Amino acid sequence: MFEGLALGVAFNPLASIVGAPLAAALYGAPRRGREHHAWAVATVAVAWLVGDGFRVMGRLRDVLDGRGLLLAHAPAWASYVALAAWAIAGLALGYGVPAALGAYVGRRVVRGTGWLSAIAVAAATSAALAALAGPASAWLERLALIVSRG
Which domain holds residue 20? Predict the structure, then answer.
């Protein structure tokens, strides 16, 4: 599972820095109705698919075909758990959290520039999380190695 988390923490920063601010702008403007929620969720989903989702699905296809497990010397179910952790962690950290923070800030701005504030906060959050991704991923990989040794 830690291997999947390590892969999920190392999300695609380019897709995150483009997709999360766009989703935050769609939902973060205070005058827009709640109907933009569906568009924001769809934007996050498409950004994740383009950035990381297709890689996760390709690896799932490899595991299903028996061409390679995600984890060496582990049962097959452990690969599915690691793939789920990879998908959920990447979606949440790389795309969901920045978009949600940007939308939250954008809805609180009262002078008509909520969408701009949402974009700025989401982009800054994506960049900050991308900068922390390398060290966090390395730390999780070391933790996985320690846990696998028992």
Answer: 2-149
